Amino acid sequence: MSDIPLSVPNYGGTVFISYARADDERPPFDDTTQGWVEFFWQQLRWELTNSGLNQAEVWLDRYDIEPAENFTEKIEAALKQSRMIIPILSPNWVTRPWCLKELERFLELKSEQGSAVDWIVLVKKREPPESDVPVCLRNREGYRFFTKEPDGRVREFYWRGLKDKDAYFDVLGRIAEWISERMLTKARPVKPARPRSGRTIYVAEPADELRDAWQRLANDLTGAGYSVVPAESRLPDNAARADELIRVALTRSEMSVHLLGESEGMKPDGSNEGIVRRQLRLAREHAVAVAAFPRILWAPKWLQEHKETKRDAFEVVQRFGTISAGEEVYAEEVTDLSQWLRGRLNQTKPERPHPAQPLLVAGASADDDDLVSALANRLQSEEIKVKALFADDPTTTADVTSPAAAIVPWGKASRASIDALLSSLSARTPRLIVLRLPGGDEGAKRRFFREGTYSEPLDAVPPDRTTAHELLVQIGIVRSDERSPE
Fold first, then answer.
1. Which residue has the higher pLDDT, 481 or 147?
2. Is this prediction's pTM over 0.90?
3. CATH code at 421?
4. Which residues contact 91 (CB under 8 A, 6 or more apart)?
5. Of the residues 106, 187, 198, 283, which has the fewest C-beta atoms closer than 10 A?
């Protein structure tokens, strides 16, 4: 027998697929074409086996539940055994209560193990309205099995059969790779995760040619204890929503890193500007308002797809606008960038950002006065100055000195009064935030969307100042490293 000690990889756990039955229907009068979900399930199993993950199970209810078995109990048991869940997002999925319950139950079961959201593998068959998507899945790019044509039409990779083989299997391969990396555990002592430093770095979404480099850099920073935004390097494909997310993420971050390849990346709907250039422009605008906000511009000398051509880093940067104060250019390999960046961060401590201007808490109706009063009182501290503006207050918005942000708690006010208040505030503050609280027309709140306004549902006004501070971190008013009031 060999004396070589064994360290056998263990690919443990189940991948649970949550889907709407309507998305797996075969085309009528076509016995040769598989349903969308059946085809996906079979191909994913093959990809995982091909990558060495042959011990992992991909659980699909139509294949794992016998007709005589109790459906609810079998689903519950499968969810308890699952390490990951794949919601196959579509207009059908968001209208099926059982699908939503599967996701909700998975999050409940995994919440004790850390961030359960990190174990969601979001697959998009078709894009449903954003307002219909569960909150934990919103603004996530996921793995899309379709593309949008310039004229707005949607082209699915699998529709009445496989239509775009290369595109389909490229996405499927990336899903299998992501699952494989996270399912592998070794038969050896587990190295404890490095505690979070409370510091956040904005690593801008790159063009596709540098997406692998983004992932490497994000993994290294996360492993060193930093938080990286935006999550999964993906931003919404709508320009207004992307801008809002970028601005909020920049507010939470102490620096930004921009990966500059040959392309400007995808152009969000409603914009002629590529996402790479767009993020750099918004970071530069942010730096004007926030002193000492550094930007790192990584323009590597060599690109994987252009190995024969050496690039001039400063010439590359010029394509994305003139370099400005507070920017550093780095041109070496991504491994060198990662080491250099972590060394740089270890030598610096983030300055505590305090709003240079007051926050405004405003109500749209006298029925919401209690909400305005409670929220304003719990938000104010030595660092944060708050102005309360009640609906029937004789003080006009013109009397409020340039607030950094306006927060509107929405309880019983009508949608019309909310819109009127936001219109009056929009000319006086760059940021509008609506907190949707219980009461009034709940349907109008669920469907609420207004360009340039950030909206967040809340069960109640924060009960104390510590929780109120956590709310400010969540909506991007202050950073997570800023001291919480006692």
1. 147
2. no
3. 3.40.50
4. 126, 128, 129, 132
5. 187
